[in-house]
Design a protein that fits this description.
Number of helices: 2
CATH architecture of the largest domain: Roll
Strand order of the largest sheet: 1-4-3-2
Radius of gyration: 16 Å
Order of helices and strands: EHEEEEHEEE
Structural class: alpha/beta
Number of domains: 2
Oligomer: single chain
Shape: globular
Distance between the termini: 35 Å
CATH class of the largest domain: Alpha Beta
Length: 134
């Protein structure tokens, strides 16, 4: 028997270097719905944002972890390298991210008939893929 899901989406935890920069990207630029903050047992704050029905948890640890993820995207290292958000406004969203100063690592392009993607780097160098179906 496989996993017995009790929710139709995922919760994603992102440990960040600077929570205000991360919130500016996820809440202010991408427009994720800010649900609030929770103080954790270690004194850090977990910010909760909704991306559709998925919960995105942004947290800055104090003190900061000694190790950092390998920078770069898909071909640089193993492990979680990017995550995908399905959108209906790929070009406008990519431009909005670029205009806000975020690095567009993959410009909007068609990867197969009727499917286009773009990728943007968040303030910590994590890649976020935007996918648009025609």
């Amino acid at each position: 028997m496989g996993v017995a899901l009790s929710k139709d989406s995922i919760d994603l935890g992102i440990i960040v270097e600077d929570e205000e920069r991360a919130l500016h990207f996820y809440r202010d630029t991408l427009g994720f719905d800010y649900q609030g903050a929770m103080t954790m047992g270690d004194g850090s704050v977990m910010h909760r944002l909704m991306c559709g029905t998925s919960l995105i948890k942004v947290r800055q640890l104090k003190p900061a972890p000694a190790a950092k993820s390998a920078p770069g995207g898909i071909g640089v290292a193993t492990g979680y390298r990017y995550w995908t958000i399905s959108v209906s406004n790929l070009d406008a969203l990519t431009k909005q991210c670029a205009d806000a100063g975020y690095k567009v690592t993959v410009e909007p392009r068609e990867i197969r008939p009727g499917v286009r993607i773009a990728m943007v780097e968040d303030p910590d160098g994590n890649w976020v893929e935007f996918l648009e179906n025609a």
